[in-house]
Amino acid sequence: LALVYTLALVGHVWFPIATSAFVFAFVLVFDAWDRPQRTWRRRIALAAITSVATAAIVTLVFEQVFLVRLP
After folding, report:
1. Predicted pLDDT at 66
2. What does the pLDDT look like over 10-68, one tens digit per residue?
3. What was the pLDDT predicted at 23?
4. Would the pTM of this model clear 0.85, i.e. be above it?
5. What single string gives the DSSP state of each residue in the chain?
6. What count of Cα atoms within 13 Å lies in the side-chain half-sphere of residue 6?
7. Are the C-beta atoms of residues 56 and 16 closer than 8 Å to each other?
8. Could you give the angle at the alpha carbon of 57 between the alpha carbons of 61 and 67, nearest 5°?
9. What region, left, alpha or beta, does residue 70 occupy, with left being phi > 0 and alpha being psi -120 to 50 degrees?
10. Measured between alpha carbons, how far is 13 from 18 in angstroms, rounded to an integer?
11. Over the range 33-52, which residues count as b (16 or more CB within 10 Å of their CB) and which as e?
């Protein structure tokens, strides 16, 4: 997952979308492995909320606090 994120997404896709897609896939894969009793609807909702929040926070912190221009 990390190689797809770094080699295929970052630099080719707007950074918040790439980060959100990576976090979404990561949460889906590892939540299904860790908690198999959860329904798919709940997993997808949790992954979507987590990925959007993470992408927004990471983007804001890097651009506003660290003053780093993101690809």
Report:
1. 95
2. 778 888 999 999 999 999 888 877 777 778 888 899 999 999 999 999 999 999 999 99
3. 95
4. no
5. -HHIIIIIIBTTB-HHHHHHHHHHHHHHHHHHHH-TTS-HHHHHHHHHHHHHHHHHHHHHIIIIIS-PPP-
6. 3
7. yes
8. 15
9. beta
10. 6
11. eeeeeeeeeebeebbeebbe
**Distance between CA atoms of 1 and 4, rounded to whole angstroms?**
5
The whole-angstrom separation of Cα 51 and Cα 53 is: 6
d(CA 4, CA 25): 11
Provide the pLDDT confidence category of residue 2 given band limits of 50, 70 and 90: confident
The residue with tokens 């993101």 is 70
CA pair distance 36, 31, nearest whole angstrom: 8
